[in-house]
Write a structure and sequence with these properties.
14 helices; five-stranded parallel beta sheet; Rossmann fold; alpha/beta; binds ligand PMT; 21 strands
Length: 396
């Protein structure tokens, strides 16, 4: 629940993307936001108020003279209760009106009367977006401190291709979560490893492990939300790149080591979440091993470099955070790893809790001792770990 208790007025204006606002209401609600929908008259030609009412569980506001507001001041009451007014889709006409301070319907009046931030997700035909009048309005709105998210490029409902498409509901949700996250890592460069490594035996076979990358990707997302500039060195996983994060894909531990050592010099914080193979195959074959040739193949292993220990021993090392996945004796083993790799903070998890799923159970170990976190989805734990890192690095 990343938006628990946040009060969001979702303004919907007239455009074909209005149908996507219905999904946005659902996504915002799922993250705990209290969503109040207000529609322009134009929007009601695309989607009915009943759809939004059913999804938000609240009456939808359509005009200034709504008799449900006891003091006939819907624009003041609704906008003063909000933590954010989000208009998605924001049409060219709506942007023009609010850029010029017009208050000719309920939504525009609420925007003018607001005391909270305003975020717009523009959606229009590409020619309308490129028109110099729209671009003047965009510049005015940006100067007024309005947050503009998108538009995206791509195929449009009218069949044309170009800039003007509204961001997808999931992308808008990410922007809203980022907006509310406290910027505890503002301006910091954070380097993260995630996922498994793959150590080739031959061109089609290899040694790997069951890390899904979810914990590392959740950390990359949380660090980005809290203002960091994030580089994610990722082993082979099937996860989308978190918005705003720079992913460096790698396969083997050696590749991961090289990518990390290249970026470590500029990093303020390094978080090693990857489940790196301790050994690689010394005699990897460059052709596929055949079953019927030469009996059972012998696989010789050699040790991989320890990425975390190597970063921690750099002369100007970033603040280093390790992970430890253990099947038993979590505290003893995690603390031993912390000492051996000379890192100030280790997040310990049991393998049955950490590998694979969406949730985890983590205990943080630092100079002050053990800090058990309540079991939770990986993103929630990632945000808590980021908070802990921000506290420990406060004076750096
Ligand atoms: O990806 P998920 O499915 O979400 O699962 C998450 C996780 C269980 C993989 C994650 O939470 C976790 O615990 N990662 C560390 C796995 C581990 O046990 O690593 P380790 O004990 O082998 O290494 C300890 C630390 O040194 C880790 O930070 C590791 O990234 C780092 N290391 C290890 C070996 C090596 N050659 N280089 C390293 O940097």
């Amino acid at each position: 629940m990343e938006l628990q208790g946040k009060r969001i007025v979702l303004g919907v204006t007239g455009g074909i993307a209005a149908y996507k606002a219905a999904e946005l209401v659902r996504l915002l609600g799922k993250q705990g936001a209290d969503v109040q929908v207000a529609m322009t008259e134009g929007a009601t030609h695309f989607v009915t108020a009943t759809t939004f009412q059913a999804l938000s569980g609240k009456p939808v506001y359509l005009d200034q003279w709504d008799a449900r507001m006891p003091n006939a001041m819907a624009h003041i009451d609704l906008s003063r209760q909000a933590d954010l007014i989000l208009v998605a889709p924001a049409s060219a006409d709506f942007m023009a009106r609010i850029a010029n301070g017009l208050a000719d319907d309920l939504l525009a009046t609420m925007v003018l009367a607001r005391t909270c931030p305003l975020m717009l997700a523009p959606a229009m035909n590409r020619q309308m977006w490129e028109n110099s009048a729209t671009q003047r309005n965009v510049a005015t709105l940006a100067e007024d401190g309005v947050a503009l998210i998108g538009p995206a490029c791509g195929e449009q409902a009218c069949g044309e291709v170009g800039a003007g498409r509204m961001l997808e509901p999931e992308e808008i949700l990410e922007e809203v979560i980022t907006f509310f996250a406290p910027k505890v890592l503002s301006g910091k460069k954070v380097l993260i490893t995630a996922g498994p490594t793959f150590e080739a035996i031959d061109p089609v076979r290899g040694i790997t492990n069951l890390s899904s990358g979810r914990m590392g990707y959740a950390l990359a997302r949380a660090a980005q939300h809290t203002g960091a500039d994030v580089t994610l060195v990722s082993g082979p996983v099937a996860l989308p790149v978190p918005a705003g994060v720079c992913r460096v894909p790698v396969r083997s531990a050696l590749e991961m080591h090289e990518a990390v050592m290249q970026a470590a010099g500029q990093a303020d914080v390094f978080i090693a979440v990857a489940a790196v193979a301790d050994y690689r195959v010394a005699n990897a074959a460059d052709h596929k091993l055949k079953k019927d040739h030469g009996g059972v193949p012998a696989i010789e292993l050699v040790e991989n470099p320890d990425i975390l220990a190597d970063v921690a021993s750099l002369p100007a090392a970033p603040f280093c955070v390790g992970f430890a996945a253990e099947s038993q004796n979590l505290e003893a083993y995690a603390q031993a790893k912390r000492q051996k790799k000379k890192v100030p903070l280790i997040a310990g998890n049991l393998i049955q809790d950490g590998f694979g799923g969406d949730d985890n159970r983590i205990t943080l170990f630092d100079d002050q001792g053990a800090h058990p976190l309540v079991p939770a989805p990986k993103y929630v734990l990632a945000r808590q770990l980021i908070e802990h890192i921000a506290k420990l690095t406060g004076n750096r």
